[in-house]
Fold these 2 entries.
Entry 1:
Amino acid sequence: MSTKEKTSVTPEVVEKEADLKNLILYNDDYNTFDFIIDSLVEVCGHDHNQAENCAIIAHYKGKCHIKKGNLDVIRPIYVEMTNRQITVEIV
């Protein structure tokens, strides 16, 4: 017979999860795959395969979540991506 452990979520964990933001990359008709991939590697710290997968997902589905974290981590990435004329949004 197996037993299941009950896990409880503390208010601190819930609050930390609520503080997390997602950075979403949107497909556009202007930037090349190579430029997007290079930017994801340079700005977000993705490896090449992860960056390529994100670019493909954004191309075919219209958007892709590329980074999750606190606003103080996400905002500088957002600023640099928008400086590169890449369409991103913090949600």
Entry 2:
Amino acid sequence: MSTTRQRKTGQTEDHLPPKREGQVTRDVKPPLANMSFSTFIYCLAGVGMLWLALSAYRVAQLKADAGGWFNLAMGKRPDTGEPMKGNPNLGGV
């Protein structure tokens, strides 16, 4: 004898919700669809220039802490006894 209950009605349509009257989903434009391609390129170039300027500033700070380009390239620094200001491994010292 089976322990599961089965419905006696043979019509499954009686148990379904009513049909939708409108559209299920709405049309959505893709991202940046209202922006022209040249504007997108100019924005991309602007962000790249900002990143380049920040990177150049950071390298200049590291160069000043190391005591010159040669010391920066060789990984040396002047022996001042204090940690480098631009060293990210020291955590804000």
